[in-house]
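# step 3/5: fold
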Amino acid sequence: MKRIVFSLLLLGAMAFVAHAEELDYAEILTQRAESGDAEAQFYLGVMYESGRVVPQDYRQAVDWYRKAAEQGNADAQSNLVFMYYHGQGVPQDYVLAYALLNLAAADGHKDAAQALDLIAKEMTPAQIEEGQAIANQWRPGQPLPTSSKTGGSR
């Protein structure tokens, strides 16, 4: 019986240590993200979107993805697409999703080009045109728009 209790205590202690290490990682990541590190901003967005280590918070995920995406991080642009496409943490906006997919495709994200075709099937020609215009006008370092004129679904 003592071995079982000891084993359970040991497992609990190991879980506590692992959680503490995750919290340390989250704190370090947050410091790097706040100092402008796009990769850290992207990973912090992933953590908030998934609820791993930090409480799930789609708005926080969007904020961190946006900061990384504005620096040209293609992975953040791609993840931000799905936040706009499914309306998680932001109002659903196919136009911004389409614009971000264009940016991610231009930055070499491997799945963005295929996703462009899929989302375009759910959009009007005016929405596609607006999405392309947003992508063509945007440059790394500039803020991304937070909404579009023709927005949501058809």
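# step 4/5: annotate
The chain is about 70% helix and 0% strand.
# step 5/5: archive (pending)
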